[in-house]
Amino acid sequence: MENWQVQKLPTGTPGRYCRKNSIIGATMDACVQSPEGYPYALVTSGVEKGNLRELALARMEDLGLKCRDVRTREAGIQDIHNKIKPEEVELVRREYAANEGWETFLSYEDTRQDILVGLLRLRKCGRNVTCPELVGRCSIVRELHVYGTAVPVHGREADKLQHQGYGTLLMEEAERIARREHRSTKLAVISGVGTRHYYRKLGYELEGPYMVKCLV
Question: Residue 51's pLDDT is what?
Answer without folding.
Answer: 79
